[in-house]
Each structure stands twice: as C-alpha cells, then as structure tokens.
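In this supplementary section we document a worked example of the pipeline. Step one takes a protein sequence of length 213 as its only input; no multiple sequence alignment statistics are reported here. Step two produces a three-dimensional model, which step three serialises into structure tokens for compact storage. The input and output of this example are shown verbatim.
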Amino acid sequence: MYSLDKSGAEAARKSDTGGGAIKEMGKYVGAFTQAVDVTSKEKGTKGIAFSFVSTSGQKANISIWTMGANGDKYQGYEQLMAIMACMGIRNIEAKDGEYTKYDYETRKDVQAMGKLFPDLCKPIGLLMETEDYIKQDGETGTRMVLKNVFQASTELTASEILDRKTTPQQLEKMVEALRHRPVKGALKHATMPERKHENQDSPFINDDDSIPF
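The serialised model returned by step three reads:
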C-alpha cells in the first residue's frame, strides 16, 4: 500500500526533476559524487572534473582548471579553495581509484582508473550560470558554468566562513547577480582553461592561524 503523505509529496516533487541534467542558472544544493584529477593533453593544464547531484536528483558535470603547466594559477584555483573552505578541508591528495566517464565512441558510461579526490565528495552548494560557446563545428551551444559555491548546511560563503561569520549575508546577493553570458564573452572551446584571476583582494590567505578549521 502507498500513501501520498508528507514524504510522498516530496518524492512526487523529485520526480519532476530526478535524473535530469541541470540546465538553468540558479542555486543548487547537493553533493559531489566524484572528483577526478585531470590534465589537458594539449597544454598540460591541471584541473578537477566533478560530478554533482542535487538533492532533487539533477546532475551536472563541472570542470575547473586550477593551474597551467608552468604553475600559474587560474580562477579555478580560487574556486577550488572556496570549495575546500566550504567543506572545512585544509588539504586534499589524489588517490588511485575507479571512476565513471563517458565514452564518446560507445556513447555509454564506462569505468576507468584514475587519480581521485575522495575528500571532495561531500555536500556542497553551487551557484550556476549559463554560457554560450562556439562548438568545434562552428555552431553555438550553451553550457552550465560554476560561478560560486557555498556551505550546504549553513549557506555561508567561503569568505564568511574564513571571517568566522555565523549568519549568511552574501548568498542572496550572489544569486541575484547570476547572469547568462553571451557568446561574445564566452570561452572559445570548452577545454580552454579559465583566465587567471586579476583581483588581488582574494579571501584566501596563507596564515594558518586565521583559518577556522
């Protein structure tokens, strides 16, 4: 016997979005299910490929490029530091393991061995924007891009956590600031690393005593 009680109503809501891909900009709470250490074959750019599943079952694959082969840090490095701050993690180390990837020849998910960051597979909140880009065939496509992150349980941002704030104040403003990026400002190819961040007022600091975890 089945009854549409309070928990059943929540299950009904999830059926509207469960299993689907995230296609709209906005605020999402969920968890990373895998975090794979990746390196660009062309330029040796380093990064992490995340698989994310929201609490309603929507999925997204997100790649952030953290640094170039010469050690120059990209904007994705600050995004990674923000993720670690929101998860209360000081250090991560890649470990050998099995992960799921998409095989473009068979058009199916397959298992592969690689370097993984299991410590990053935890609850997280994401702010996602949409961005137009030029495909290899010259057509215009739209993809999801990571804009900001926040602590899933408290909705505190990375800077608020580092400043030992207990009440979230920045997230609402960040949500309102989400935008669609037209092709003019989009990266030319999906595999191109993000621009190095020019802002010197970074909330990420080197003084260990100032980190609250």
